[in-house]
């Protein structure tokens, strides 16, 4: 993962998943605002497990890249069978991918078995995946103090939001805002990973006073002075704040567009049902009036014959 492709590729995966979840949650809430219930994953009309298969495939590719394709000898172990220090980060990244692979696999299994606690257990496994991701980036063997470490630190805040909202989703499955924030945080994870890839491994984008240095098997950004490092970290903080604002504007605008689109369809469908009911009522009402007239005539007829019967 310590490269441009190693950050951009998983970033695109998180970006796609975040958009997919955001779209589906907003659409369902717009169509069924009163009966909305969150879902940990979504299907399509043709392929039921398309999202989970995508997660499994992306995780498998990530593990293969980290442990077998990326290393020069196409295996991460040393000659004596131990893990060399320059491959520790490969195993850390693979652990995250393995957790997401486990989540997707068990999500499919539980959907097939359909236990009563399916939703809660699926959300629980999703929370475990985000917890593993947060743990790995917090104790990352890569640089903690430099520019890359600042990017990782800010990424942890976004992962924490994903973890918290996933856990909250277990207790509040009907809360749209919890699902909305969770989807937005997954989207933001993807964007931030992509930003990291380009900003840390594109020489022209490295902050002034800093340079690329090859350490422990991969390139890292180092700064020539404390002042240059402080400036570089400050620029990272500014980037995060700008992208945070941009994501907030995008998700709210995206929500308004989808609500306008699917909300109008829902309102049109409701009006059509009301019109159909009104037409049925209009058809039935004359028949009811005739029945009432006939019943009143019958009552009057009975009353008119009653004195005659009594005289007899």
Please tell me about this protein's structure.
This protein has 312 residues and is mainly alpha-helical. It has one domain (4-243). 74% of the residues lie in helices and 4% in strands. It has 7 helices and 2 strands. The chain has a two-stranded antiparallel ribbon with strand order 1-2. Strand 1 (210-215) and strand 2 form a beta hairpin. Helix 2 (50-69) packs antiparallel against helix 3 (88-113), helix 4 runs antiparallel to helix 5 and helix 5 (147-171) packs parallel to helix 7 (226-311). The relative contact order is 0.12. One of its GO terms (cellular component) is membrane.
Task: Give a concise summary.
InterPro entries: DUF716 (IPR006904). This protein is mainly alpha-helical.
What's the structural blueprint in terms of helices and strands?
Elements: H1 4-31, H2 50-69, H3 88-113, H4 118-138, H5 147-171, H6 176-201, E1 210-215, E2 218-223, H7 226-311
Antiparallel strand pairs: 1-2
Subcellular location: Membrane
Keywords: Membrane, Transmembrane, Transmembrane helix
Transmembrane segments: 6-23, 49-70, 90-109, 121-139, 151-172, 184-202, 240-263
Radius of gyration (CA) equals 31 Å
Task: Give the topology string: H per helix, E per strand.
Answer: HHHHHHEEH
The biggest sheet amounts to: 2 strands, antiparallel
Helix share, percent: over 70%
Strand content: under 5%
Secondary structure category: mainly alpha
| Overall 3D shape | globular
The strand count comes to: 2
Going across the biggest sheet, name each strand in turn.
1-2
Write down the domain tally.
1
Count of helical stretches: 7
Spatial separation of the terminal alpha carbons: 109 Å
Unreliable stretches, pLDDT < 50, 5 or more residues?
A: 298-312
Mean pLDDT over the residues: 86
């Amino acid at each position: 993962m310590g490269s441009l492709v190693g950050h951009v590729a998983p970033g695109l995966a998180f970006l796609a998943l975040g958009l997919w979840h955001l779209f589906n949650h907003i659409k369902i809430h717009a169509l069924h605002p009163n009966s909305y219930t969150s879902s940990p994953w979504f299907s399509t009309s043709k392929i039921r497990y398309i999202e989970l298969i995508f997660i499994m495939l992306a995780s498998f590719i990530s593990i293969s890249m980290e442990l077998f394709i990326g290393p020069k000898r196409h295996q991460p172990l040393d000659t004596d069978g131990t893990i060399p220090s320059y491959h520790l980060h490969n195993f850390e990244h693979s652990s995250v991918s393995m957790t997401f692979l486990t989540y997707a696999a068990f999500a499919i299994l539980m959907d097939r078995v359909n236990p009563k606690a399916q939703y809660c257990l699926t959300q629980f496994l999703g929370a475990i995946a985000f917890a593993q991701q947060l743990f790995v980036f917090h104790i990352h063997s890569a640089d903690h103090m430099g520019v890359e470490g600042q990017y990782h630190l800010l990424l942890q805040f976004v992962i924490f939001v994903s973890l918290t909202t996933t856990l909250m989703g277990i207790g509040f499955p009907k809360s749209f805002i919890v699902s909305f924030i969770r989807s937005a945080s997954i989207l933001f994870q993807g964007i931030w990973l992509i930003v990291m890839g380009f900003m840390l491994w594109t020489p022209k984008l490295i902050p002034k006073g800093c340079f690329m240095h090859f350490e422990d098997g991969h390139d890292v950004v180092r700064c020539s002075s404390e002042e240059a490092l402080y400036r570089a970290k400050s620029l990272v903080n500014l980037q995060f704040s700008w992208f945070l604002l941009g994501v907030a504007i995008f998700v709210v605008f995206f929500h308004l567009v989808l609500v306008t689109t699917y909300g109008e369809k829902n309102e049109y469908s409701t009006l059509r049902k009301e019109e159909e009911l009104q037409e049925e009522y209009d058809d039935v009402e004359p028949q009811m009036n005739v029945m009432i007239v006939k019943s009143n005539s019958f009552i009057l007829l009975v009353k008119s014959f009653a004195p005659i019967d009594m005289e007899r």
